[in-house]
Inverse folding.
């Protein structure tokens, strides 16, 4: 059985706008990971551990960016704006297709 490892948010499909990529962005927002950590080579256990930390960090805010304090809300907006711009530059299209 071959163990799979994450490619890293900077190498992920859709410019990192995947469920794992968004979790990494959120970890950056909350300071769980430094912005330089792309999680390349992480295994499923490491990703699960990060998910649990990010989930716990979101709980006081009901998992809603609008409920974040100003500093975190601004950081969230900045990180996600960069991610969307990066994804668009790589050909990502936010429009849903018939098969989505």
């Amino acid at each position: 059985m071959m163990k799979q490892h994450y490619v890293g948010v900077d190498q992920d499909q859709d410019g990192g706008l995947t469920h794992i990529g968004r979790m990494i962005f959120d970890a950056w927002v909350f300071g769980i990971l430094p912005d330089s950590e792309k999680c390349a080579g992480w295994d499923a256990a490491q990703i699960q551990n990060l998910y649990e930390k990010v989930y716990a960090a979101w709980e006081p805010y009901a998992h809603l960016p609008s409920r974040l304090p100003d500093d975190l809300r601004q950081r969230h907006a900045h990180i996600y704006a960069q991610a969307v711009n990066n994804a668009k530059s790589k050909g990502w299209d936010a429009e849903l297709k018939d098969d989505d």
Q: What stands out?
A: The radius of gyration is 14 Å. DSSP finds three helices and no strands in the chain. The chain has a mean pLDDT of 93.
